[in-house]
Write a structure and sequence with these properties.
It is a single chain. About 50% of the residues lie in helices and about 0% in strands. The protein is mainly α and about 130 residues long. The chain has one domain. It is elongated.
């Protein structure tokens, strides 16, 4: 059995692959079609990315985490510096959007890569005779 920390030939490690959008099979930059949408398949090796079901599970979870961090930072800035309201909007809106989109891209990439490496498939119930 292959150890999860081992890297097989041509396959990048999980975190760099997710950060740079590398194909989990060949390592080429073909995982994403745009910022957070997966390509249908790898343009290099032909791996079909549509067979993996990552879903949008990480979206709500990451939004809550990033929102809590941004809220803490905004409150700290307000308590220490008292900037005008427009400066808060100018600072926190783009930072929040970029943090959510960036973390969503990485988390979706990690989930797809791990699904590929572990050969995860939809579960099924084995029906045995007499049950």
């Amino acid at each position: 059995m292959l150890n999860q920390t081992e890297n097989t030939k041509g396959q990048p490690d999980v975190l760099p692959a997710a950060l740079f959008g590398l194909c989990p099979h060949c390592g080429q930059k073909t995982l994403f079609a745009n910022v957070i949408k997966f390509s249908d398949k790898c343009r290099s090796c032909g791996l079909d990315f549509s067979q993996y079901n990552v879903g949008d599970g990480p979206a709500a979870f990451l939004t809550l985490i990033v929102g809590a961090i941004i809220l803490g930072l905004a409150l700290a800035v307000e308590a220490n510096f008292h900037p005008p309201f427009w400066l808060h909007i100018l600072l926190w809106v783009p930072l929040t959007v970029s943090a959510v989109v960036g973390s969503l891209r990485v988390s979706k990439g990690i989930l797809l890569i791990l699904e590929h490496r572990n050969q995860a498939r939809e579960g099924s119930i084995d029906k045995r005779d007499g049950e």
